[in-house]
Specification:
single chain; 482 residues; FAD/NAD(P)-binding domain; eight-stranded mixed sheet; five-stranded parallel sheet; 14 helices; 29% helix; 26% strand; binds flavin-adenine dinucleotide; binds nicotinamide-adenine-dinucleotide; flavoprotein; Class-I_Pyr_Nuc-Dis_Oxidored; disulfide bond; oxidoreductase; Pyr_OxRdtase_I_AS
Length: 482
Amino acid sequence: MAHYDLSIIGSGSGNSLITPFWDDKRVVLADKGSGSTEAFGGTCLNVGCIPTKMFVRPAALARGPVEAARLNVTQATTDVDFPAMRDRIFSRIDAISAGGRHYRAVEQEFVDLVSEKVTLTGDFSQPPFAFVSDSGVHAEADQMVIAAGSRPALPQVPGIHLPGVHTSDSIMRIEARPEKLLIIGGGYIACEFAGVFSAFGTEVIQVNRSRGLMTAMDADISAAFTAEAHNNWTVHLERAVTNISEQDGGLRVELVTSDGSVERHDVDTVLVAIGRTPNTDLIGAREAGLDVHPDGRLAVDACQRVLIQGEPVEGLYALGDISSPAMLKHVANQEARVVAHNLEHPDRIRPSRQEAIPAAIFSFPEMAQVGLTETQAAEAIGAEHLTTKIQNYGDTAYGWAMEDGEGIFKVIADRRSGQILGAHVMGYQASNLIQPIIQAMSFGQDAYTTARGQYWIHPALMEVTENALLGLEVPIPEDAPL
Ligand SMILES: Cc1cc2nc3c(=O)[nH]c(=O)nc-3n(C[C@H](O)[C@H](O)[C@H](O)COP(=O)(O)OP(=O)(O)OC[C@H]3O[C@@H](n4cnc5c(N)ncnc54)[C@H](O)[C@@H]3O)c2cc1C
Ligand SMILES: NC(=O)c1ccc[n+]([C@@H]2O[C@H](COP(=O)([O-])OP(=O)(O)OC[C@H]3O[C@@H](n4cnc5c(N)ncnc54)[C@H](O)[C@@H]3O)[C@@H](O)[C@H]2O)c1
């Protein structure tokens, strides 16, 4: 069996662990590949954040005439060339993926690349830690990082594997833009693709079993987004998919409503987006004795060390979707930076940052969030101690310029101290407007100091953020900035 200094499973965020520190050591990197092309480089690059947002941008342009009409400008989107767009996007992505594979496999002699599915094997209570590949390649190492990610969850309904039924792994490479697309799910992926394909002219039917969309977000944002989605594409709530079958060259999807009646929709394409499953089963984590949460995530301590019977194992780390409750690339990247440090400095390991984790959903409209929802904040410190402000984009100068009628920026703080507890945004550029709040929460700045301790460019859209902060009822110290 080959022996290495470092073994990594997963070429997404795991790939960034191979810093110059390892140049004179031996590293093995195993990856079975992502998506239908089994590409190197993980989810974000190949089937996740990057290609989706490369579709979101042209979708925003395709919607341009709607805003233009509000502003007395007549424009028309006359064509969306989906195949050309798809080929442009993936010609860039596939080249990056292939270059990354070549760099590790060929140019870096100290790295061995195993392009196969691997499974943990042997005793994991102490080093060396070993895996075996499907074809029988054995490798053991003094330190190991499990960064094997997650995959789309599939509902157990008949017809789920029919051609034409897609997940985010395959929908972006389809031959042609669907005429009629039924999307199952009401979370991040479902809402982003509903925004994209509806902008391209596809008839979108979004089906969710709960009473709203994006229900994990603050209730005000979830309600506002659900109302907007109803205006922009067809939304059917409180329905469960029970069957998918082939029908007249297309697909027939059967739904059961909350009162038990059955609905049928004939479409050409289905997208399933009901959450993601951590890949602990694919690596045989339970069989190797590693602690696994009930939801399938690997259990780790604050320093990302994997737990066995509640105790951290020295030199055995996990990061990203396989262990993190927040399946987000910026979270996986931060954890990778921490794990890279801990691998290189086992005598002074550090914890990963779990505070003020933000997220954005690049749908139409865009949404962003950081910190606690109002419900969570009330549970945490008592509703009587909260102050909240919902700032309409439309009540600021740039909002007038946009004739914006939908954008809202909600901020929540502790009225006793001015500590910001959370922010929740829906509207144009939500992912950017929220950044000063992320910064304030990360550096412990109170709401008033954040608002008045700096200039805000007038009349930029960022005045939405400033005004939201100024709308909170928080203490203003005597010597506060003016
Ligand atoms: C459609 C979509 C859009 C997204 N958009 C965003 C976004 O806008 N912003 C954001 O922050 N996050 C987004 N995410 C989430 C983000 O992509 C993930 O959180 C992130 O990529 C996880 O990185 P990772 O390194 O943990 O796993 P991955 O990048 O998934 O890497 C894991 C790798 O391990 C390999 N692997 C798994 N099991 C084995 C095995 N047994 N043997 C060998 N190899 C194995 C996999 O093939 C994969 O290549 C999106 C996700 C999806 C699906
Ligand atoms: N912009 C981003 O940052 C971004 C984009 C895409 C994905 N992601 C990450 O990927 C994760 C997975 O995304 P997702 O949209 O698949 O999951 P999600 O958890 O965001 O949403 C899942 C949705 O599916 C519904 N659902 C669950 N089980 C169901 C069932 N059996 N039948 C019908 N509906 C069901 C849920 O009610 C929910 O609306 C996200 O949670 C997020 O962490 C992030």
